[in-house]
TrEMBL record:
Organism: Actinacidiphila acididurans
Family label: Belongs to the amidase family. GatA subfamily.
Pfam families with a match to the protein in the record: Amidase
InterPro entries: Amidase, Amidase_CS, Amidase_dom, AS_sf, GatA
Protein name: Glutamyl-tRNA(Gln) amidotransferase subunit A
Length: 497
């Protein structure tokens, strides 16, 4: 069944629908792959073997009964461990939720099940999605399948690594400051941050409520579009959900024509801190877009220079508020409750034992920024910068259809290299953060290997809010041109595990 795990999600679904494969056989093949390689990769925190096989058998029964199947029915998927999943553990990569089994499904989880997508299990992540490397997981880091000594990106490194190691053809991540796109870039996979509000956040455990967004992860642009269509849409259970039709992302992914499109290149996304090989591959991708008939326009968005500091005031402030619910009184870990301590003491001991260093750092920073006397100087000022960034995007999109940039300034760095330097770690999200602050749609897809280290480089595409289809139109065109140029998908060059 080796060939089965190399199929795209679209190919797998088609072969299940026409009877060439059963969903159960496909699921068994991926479970066998997990057994074979995940001890080295550590992409999964929990594998739901029995549940996955039961879902697969249900799809096969539907087909046998002649019932219509959805476009991804029977296709296995790896789900980031931040979405509540009824009956199986959801930990957010944190000790404070170790062993917690939700009594309900997140909206995204429910939609996947209704579509017949087979959920293999929950993937590793930086604790509460706070990190750029998946080293902040309480359950240990995930390795990058291209080089297991290097990070797979973060916070959704487990989902990206599961794709790159052929443990699943589809995955879901969340993107607060780049946590879908950055892992996609360093693993040569495709990751999409939909327009903020385009995918329901109900049941997605909150880090920073005005920034968090779930999105599809895949190995091809079309697969990402098919998953996007399944998981997106208005949800009355989420007050930030947009009541608007889902953009025609699948149609756009199948067209892949950029002739006549205006592509913006932002001058602020260059300079010091960018690896030479990353800049080289990005420059080649821009030239490729010209060859495909697009018009390239150079732009300046001066407020983007302030995106990183603004983000690291807004996100920790919202995290400080959201994580206050983990108080040892209702669910999750409870430490020090021996009958002699007050509720406040138990809460303090539980948070000390349950939260990791990065989560504590951000809670402290956010609490300080929101405190009396500092709110206007820090959080308030950061929100004003956010408005300036949004206006820069608005002006840019008056001149161009999409913006392109490197996804990350560097390729995957070695595990442990930046753990003692938070600022160096935060710089990994330099290019991705502006789109989160403005709520725009954004995608990362592979654009080659850096000549210095032979590791993947990602191309980022950013589109205006509710114009997610433009990402897939441009992404599909670039992907097809690169595959023709290389003679095969880039991921085929990854070392075999």
């Amino acid at each position: 069944m080796t060939d089965v795990i190399k199929l795209t999600a679209a190919e797998t679904a088609a072969r299940i629908t026409n009877g060439d494969l059963t969903a159960e056989a496909v699921t068994e093949a991926h479970l066998a792959r997990i057994d074979a390689v995940d001890e080295k990769v550590h992409a999964f925190l929990h594998v739901d073997r029995e549940g996955a096989l039961a879902q697969a058998r249900a799809v096969d029964a539907q087909r046998a009964a002649g019932e219509p199947l959805g476009p991804l029915a029977g296709v296995p998927l790896a789900l980031k461990d931040i979405f509540t999943t009824k009956g199986i553990p959801t930990t957010c990569g944190s000790k404070i939720l170790e062993g917690w089994i939700p009594p309900y499904d997140a909206t995204v989880t429910r939609k996947l099940k209704e579509a017949g997508v087979v959920i293999l299990g929950k993937t590793n992540m930086d604790e509460f999605a706070m990190g750029s490397s998946t080293e902040n997981s309480a359950y240990g880091p995930t390795g990058n399948p291209w080089d297991l000594t290097r990070i797979p990106g973060g916070s959704g490194g487990g989902s990206a690594a599961a794709l790159a190691s052929y443990q699943a053809p589809l995955a879901i991540g969340t993107d607060t400051g780049g946590s879908i796109r950055q892992p996609a870039a360093v693993t040569a996979t495709v990751g999409v941050k939909p327009t903020y509000g385009g995918v329901s956040r109900y049941g997605m455990i909150a880090f920073s409520s005005s920034l968090d967004q779930g999105g599809p992860c895949a190995r091809t642009v079309l697969d990402a579009a098919l998953l996007h269509e399944v998981m997106a849409g208005h949800d009355p259970m989420d007050s930030t959900s947009i009541d608007a039709p889902v953009p025609a992302v699948v149609e756009a992914a199948r067209s892949g024509n950029v002739k006549g499109m205006r592509i913006g290149v932002i001058k602020e996304f260059a300079g010091e801190g960018y690896q030479a090989g990353v800049v080289q591959r990005f420059t080649e991708a821009v030239e490729l877009l010209r060859e495909l008939g697009a018009q390239v326009v150079e732009l300046s968005c001066p407020s983007f220079s302030y995106a990183l500091p603004a983000y690291y005031l807004i996100a920790p402030s919202e995290c400080s508020s959201n994580l206050a619910r983990f108080d040892a009184m209702r669910y999750g870990l409870r430490a020090g409750d021996d009958g002699t301590r007050s509720a406040e003491e138990v809460t303090a001991l539980t948070r000390e034992a349950g939260f990791g260093p990065e989560v504590k750092r951000r809670i402290i920073l956010g609490t300080y920024a929101l405190s009396s006397g500092y709110y206007d100087a820090y959080y308030g000022s950061a929100q004003k910068v956010r408005t300036l960034i949004t206006r820069d995007f608005q002006r840019a999109f008056e001149q161009v259809d999409v913006i392109v940039s490197p996804t990350t300034p560097t390729t995957a760095f070695p595990i442990g290299e930046r753990t003692d330097d938070p600022m160096a770690m935060y710089l990994a999200d330099l290019c991705t953060i502006p789109a989160n602050l403005a709520g725009n749609a954004a995608m990362s897809l592979p654009c080659g290997l850096a000549p210095e280290d032979g590791l993947p480089v990602g191309l980022q595409i950013v589109a205006p809010a509710l114009k997610d289809d433009r990402l897939y139109r441009v992404g599909a065109a670039v992907e097809a041109a690169f595959v023709t140029k290389w003679g095969h998908p880039l991921l085929e060059e990854a070392p075999q595990l």
